[in-house]
Amino acid sequence: MTYRNSNYTAFYVDEPFSTSQLGAHATKDFYYYNTLRVWKGSDILFPFNDAHARTYSVRDGSNWELTLKPRLRERLRGSKNIILFLSSNTKSSKALAEEIEYGTCTLGLPIIVVYPELDNSQIASNEQLSSRVKMLWDKLPILKEAMTKVPTLHIPMKKEYIEAALSDSELTVQNKGKDNLQYFYTI
Q1: CA-CA-CA-CA dihedral for 91, 47, 121, 149, to nearest 10
Q2: Buried-state track 109-138, b at ≥16 Cβ within 10 A, e below 16
Q3: pLDDT digits over 138-162, tens only?
Q4: What is the pLDDT of residue 15?
């Protein structure tokens, strides 16, 4: 049995991958992932445990079936939840769809959806998720199915919200509740 203590971060990266030296780093959603890494680097108590740091890195030109897909799955199997960055830049890609489908539908990992371009009032009002949020879900069709299977939290890209989410034991595969709820924080 795999010990699941990592946070798997899912974000859109252009396909085919950029051939520039920046590669995935040239993609806007990758910037949000790097922000988590910076927060962890400057605050050792920040509860982000990067699943991507647990296995060998992959090159942008790696073979999907032989290298990329198995590596994604290995990282997901060692994770307790998925942090998904969903923005106006996000597009459904083979890798992103695989991460969400395998991670939630197969492994049952709860999802923390981070909306970098929205604040809390734009995510939810009157205890309902906004139409703006639901329109972003259309960018990643597998997400709608996944959210029916696992607890899902919807939050803005603010350190205190992400810190609270990563500290929430209900948002781990080990402790998730029986109800697959959609919810959001009001901090």
Answers
A1: 60
A2: bbbbbbbbebebeebbeeeebbeebeebee
A3: 999 999 999 998 999 999 999 999 9
A4: 54
